[in-house]
Amino acid sequence: MSKRVPSVIIKKKSIIPINKEAIKAICIDDFALKKRQNYGTLMIDLKNGRVIDLIESRERKDVAIWLSLFPNIQFVSRDGSPAYAAAIRQAHPDAHHISDRFHLIKRLIDALTLCMQNTVAGRIIIPLTKGQHAMNELLVHTPSRRTKILLVKSLASEGRTLQDIRSQTKFSLQTIRKYMNMREEDIPEDAADQRGREHQEAIRKVMEKAEEVRSMHKKGYSTRKIVDKTGYTHKTITNYLASDFNPINGQYGVRRPGKLSPFRNEVLTLRTKGTTYKEIHAFIRQKGYTGSEAAIRQFIAKEKRLGRDFKKEASTDATEVIERKWLIKLLYKPLNKVKDISFEQVENSIQQYPLIGTLLDLIWDFKKILKSGKKEILHTWIAETESLELAELKSFLNGMKKDIKAVENACTLPYSNGLAEGSVNKLKTIKRIMYDRNSFALLRNKLLLLEVRKFN
């Protein structure tokens, strides 16, 4: 007795002929017809990436009957859905299940992220690293171009990547490449900063005036006559003629008392550590500061212009802050792709929280296992992970053990659900073009027609 085909599978005869007996390796995935309400299932031929068919359901019973219409299926790639797993076993008991590697990695990263959030502080205080020392030099001083070039060359000589140097110096990649490729003979010499040059020029002009007055005085000119000749005031001429005359203004470099005076050392200490102006303002307001954030910026700018080494004046602790979110990024990307943190900073963070190193090893070892083609080392990884007794990983490990054959096949077979994810995006585009007003039968035929044009 032949199986009854549910109405969700075929509403009317398809205009696209499908050779169902030729299909042997497929991947299936669900897609939303109406988000959180109605879903369908898409089937892709893993041999050529072509969309074979789609139905208006993702229920186990409907999917099982639909799959049974393709009698020679041997390999099925899928996500971790229990409904799909049961449907495949019902329709094709001897077919090989393949768990999708992307979904496995995503589930593991979600579990590791939760574990890190539950055990690692949001901000980790570590000893100041060498790279951050260089960054602090840029924060608290106005370096010359020569200093910037030598800093970039020094970081490059240590084997730092472009992104790492960028995160340390905040220079653009174009500037970093330019500085790295600059020859020694082309590196400019140090020059006084603009404020210093202006100060020296002002002193020179004052001394010229003083020499002019002194020269006239030596020739016998009276003070009154010098006033008439030069236009300077009587007091100015008296100052120029004084034996202890100093061309530097008496107010130059003098600190004037103000609202920031009681918090001076704390402001310098915080800024030396790289604390933002907003954070400094919030911190000292709690201690009674009533001024503005702009005043703090002006204060730091003046210290830079005067060239003071206020790192020595500030009572600094040689520490820096590492954000937990930077470490979580390492679950997704290798260290050389994360610009916020350096190798030395990661090492220092692991010394405080050894679990961070363990979690990073877990995810990267798992990724290698999925590419290794050796299912034996998968069981070793599972045993070692279970021995850690991390509550956040318990659900993930239980799910893997229940579906262990599919996970083993993910390590040894080249198939995945990547083709299905791309086809679902294509389906969404078609729905948008049709303003989501099409019937399912029209949507199905439109997608399959596009596939015919693509592969013929």
Automatic annotation (TrEMBL):
Residues 26-122, 326-444 form the Transposase IS204/IS1001/IS1096/IS1165 DDE domain. Pfam families: DDE_Tnp_ISL3. PANTHER family: TRANSPOSASE FOR INSERTION SEQUENCE ELEMENT IS1557. This is Transposase IS204/IS1001/IS1096/IS1165 DDE domain-containing protein. It comes from Planococcus kocurii.
